[in-house]
Amino acid sequence: MNKPEITPPAHFLRQIVQADLQSGKHTRIVTRFPPEPNGYLHIGHAKSICLNFGLAREFGGVCHLRFDDTNPAKEEQEYIDAIKQDVQWLGFQWDGEVRYASDYFDQLYAWAVELIKAGKAYVCDLSPEEAREYRGNLTQPGRNSPFRDRSVEENLDLFERMRAGEFPDGARALRAKIDMAAPNMNLRDPILYRIRHAHHHQTGDKWCIYPSYDFTHGQSDAIEGITHSICTLEFEDHRPLYEWFLDNLPVPAKPRQYEFARLNLNYTVTSKRKLKLLVDEGHVDGWDDPRMSTISGFRRRGYTPAAIREFCERIGVTRSDAVVDMGMLEFCIRDDLDNNAPRAMCVLRPLKVTITNYPEGQVEQLSLPRHPKQDMGERILPFSREIYIDRDDYMVDPPKGYKRLVPGGEVRLRGSYVIRADEAITDAEGNIVELLCSYDPDTLGKNPEGRKVKGVIHWVPGAESVECEVRLYDRLFTESNPDKTEEGGSFLDNINPDSLVVLTGCRAEPSLASATPEDRFQFEREGYFCADSKDSRPGNLVFNRTVTLRDSWGQ
Q1: Which residue in 90, 219, 284, 367 has the fewest CB atoms around it within 10 Å?
Q2: Residues annotated within a binding site for L-glutamine
Q3: Annotated binding site for ATP
Q4: What CDD domains does this protein's entry cite (predicted)?
Q5: Residues annotated as catalytic (active site), given as ranges
């Protein structure tokens, strides 16, 4: 049965867009997703992607992908490629070609010259440290730079020489002349251009001065005809500066900025600086490590685009900062995979079982559904004298409520027969290395006569099963707020030492031999898993645990 169509909740941005279209203020909306290419995208960016691209799609508009690439020292082509892949993987496509703020560097430079000519910008020789001192703080107004009253001619000359590369990094900066006593710190003569002798991934060595993010962003929006410039609340205090530039320059359009609350997810960090630190110091295996909060990390772990989009829709769009529980994201992926992931059996800690009364050399081909509710066809499991079960499914002295194999006890093998544990064979150290069991040949597809068997366990064939590696991923941090540390501590102190457990020598049913990277499955009784996108290949199967069957953290 198909799920009924659900009308998305009318959050405030939907209402604004709808009102603007109905009033005729705009005939078509144009949004943009403007990442800085200085790292991989994280789950917080997923919310922004879904919002900007989703609103454009919903109201028949378009969304641009624009890289705000104003700091070449921290930007790399690798990040650009990864961001493009993430956007497309989430199910969205930008309008036209990929755009770059660097496409507009010539125009931005010309506008900076116009501000100088209008007496609204000046070249300042204060060092970064001196500029911070002159800026004041939230309770004290700033002081005018001693270079604030340079003549227009001197400013034009110095700015041209800055562009020509005459001065070293940090020697001078171009600043807007606004108000050093403004209550909003962003209006205290903000920097428009810095000297950076750095090679740029798009413009090469054409420039040795680069515009600030604040000077670039609004004008780029205006050039592209953005109607709704949607960003997170941290940019709310930047809006007066955004509007000051638009009001004081001959821009072709006047976009409007709107802010929403960013996505804060517990048990994660989403600071690019912290994510980069995790990578650089080797705490994780790259930006796409399945424990990372990056989109590529969630993808490699087995999350689906649909689950992430559903999560972003569920948490809604507000102007109130809040922390979302990781359990909601895990619910979304469980719900998606429960409906769409085929079932399979994999024994993570194999224990050999010999069924002593099963005919030697005989093999039965048992057929099991690939999904209990969806029509995904069948899979074949060979059943013979030797099989594997999980080591935890046999106990000599089990706890109360244990419904698996015990000495002399019976259990049903999933989709197969009822077996009884007759004898355990141990090694010299007393470890159980094999179980000798007997089976009831009259129990295939039916209950045994005169007795009730409560437990059902999974199994795989002996000879026909395939060996694999299974990586049990868990939350990267033990604290819901990783930044909560003892005085002088670091978020790194809260890394979960059990966030990755690697199991080798696992045994999977034969149908999994053909698993390709990113194929997802429910391993019965174990959780949801996917074939690793980097290390899994025919003959070397590697499966990552996406999520457990139930929320064990909430217990």
Answers
A1: 367
A2: 68, 213
A3: 36-38, 42-48, 232, 262-263
A4: GlnRS_core (cd00807)
A5: 36, 262, 272
